[in-house]
Amino acid sequence: MPIKIQQRVHSFIWLLAIHKKLFLDTAKNPFKILELLFSTEESFIKAELDDIAIVLYAKPFHRKVSPRSPVIIVPGDGGNQLEARLNKTETVHYFCQKKTSDYFTLWLNLELLVPFVLDCWVDNMRLEYDEVTGKTSNSPGVDIRVPGWGNTTTVEFIDPSGVGYGDYFSKLVNKLVTWGYIRGVDVRAAPYDFRKAPNHNIEYFENLKFLIEETYYSNGNSKVVTIGHSLGNLYLLYFFNLQSPAWKAKFIKSYVSVSAPYGGSVKILKAFASGYNLDQWKLVLNPLTIRKEQRSMTSSAFLLPSTKLWTADEVLVTTVSRNYTAYDYKEFFNDIGFKKGWNMYKNTRRLLEDLKAPGVELHCLYGVDLPTAERLVYGKGKFPDSQPIEINGDGDGTVGIRSLAACMDWVKEQEHDVHGRILQQKKMRSRRFWIFFDTAYKNANFSYLFSNHRSRRRSISSELMKAMVDVLDVIGLYVVINRNWSGKGDARFLAAGLGWSSADSLATRIVPFWTGARGTTFSWKYIQMCLESNYNLVYYVALASFLWLWTRREIPSTMKIALRLLMQYYGISSWILLIIHFLVTVFMALMAMAFYAVIQPHNGR
């Protein structure tokens, strides 16, 4: 038996010996490996997490070749962080920042996506399009960069704080790490400026080619698996179309495509006409406010429904005066008052229509059976500044089925294998990735592949409201102190502060943490976080009260000793002293009130 064939047989036997369940299945069906990779049955979720490794590990095992294929992730629209530095001469509002000494997080930063401040964000995030040269530039005085090249940090969590609403590729990367992968070594990412169409990001493709080659050589000449999501798939397809067959044969093992809008999306027409805020509260995210930024993105024009998939008699937008098809974009842009959009479209339309099969092994994954806009209807006086009624068809919730399934046409166009997998609606209810401008975010549901439990759907509206909690606290304190609490000013403020902080702690900390502990794999750390967070706010208010008492009151010497001892308590926060920590915190809060009552008669004011 030839050495190479023998090595492959040994590799496969080794894999089957580890995966007993897979051995039984593949004995009956040799294609079970690929079926398990894209399976969405809940009973197979755990099996998928283990057996998906086959795609990454199935290669000869010998010393000169790594036992697994390195992975490079290309995220979707809005799927990686962006940083900005400001040096502006003017702003849209007086309170918008003009200059910054260093780069700050522009995307994703929910603190910037609140009313009024949103105007500042839009002005910083938007692009300027030169109709003569066909090139784009940042808003004047704004320098934007893409952090995290080559590592997964900025795609695992789009929000650098690492909290839930910014969770993106973390589950995939964490799972790969459990298989032995190393961040920045054999699991890497290629983030990009998702505001721009591929022809405005040429340098990106040069860097991506170098990254793939570097990853290949640094991992024992192991071919690379590329994983794309949403717009990232169009970037990858554009990239593969630029490369020679010989280069792809040497460096690429396979390409995993997830929720790719290969033919564009009708939702983009909504973004251009009326603004698209992911159907969140208009009070929080006004679609007309963010429309200016969405219109400036050449990647938006790049994602308009393609004439390659839509015919001239298929209506996409209906108004009182006329209908618009994929062949009426010039009139559409004129009528919405954005004539520049037609030039942006002409500059990018051929990119999508001319794209051919990638020329590598392809795994195409997409969702169906979810209501997806296929036509927008505007009533009288509604076009273009009001939200339309959506006439739905089949798709993944954002991208229509014909665009998602376009990848299957490549079965006849390339000699490499094309594997498709459809995810049904009833199996698409796990946590989704909520990305603000992602044209295919709703059903890029990696949780069935990379997570072994269900999670709750998160709403960006609730997270934005949390960003405004300080304002609500101030209003609440004002109401409590001035209307619902008797006594003198100092006493009312102190009592209301302690009471309000306790209520705030209960509402925003103990309930979410306790629910989180019940909704995930049990760990005592959740209980500890729950208890600690419940009294921490009260603790700090009480500590501030002691400092205030210490500096502004005539306190008897005996009380000063007690105060000094209590203030030393600040550094205790370990698990062993958790109960003591809690009891002493309650004691501090009560003592603060008691001390105030004792020394009140000595107040000389």
TrEMBL record:
The keyword Transmembrane helix applies. GO terms for biological process: lipid metabolic process. InterPro entries: AB_hydrolase_fold, LACT/PDAT_acylTrfase, TMEM147. One of its GO terms (molecular function) is O-acyltransferase activity. Pfam families: DUF2053, LCAT. Keywords: Membrane, Transmembrane, Transmembrane helix. The chain crosses the membrane at residues 534-551, 572-599. It comes from the Eukaryota. Gene3D superfamilies: alpha/beta hydrolase. The keyword Transmembrane helix applies. This is Group XV phospholipase A2. It comes from Trichinella pseudospiralis.
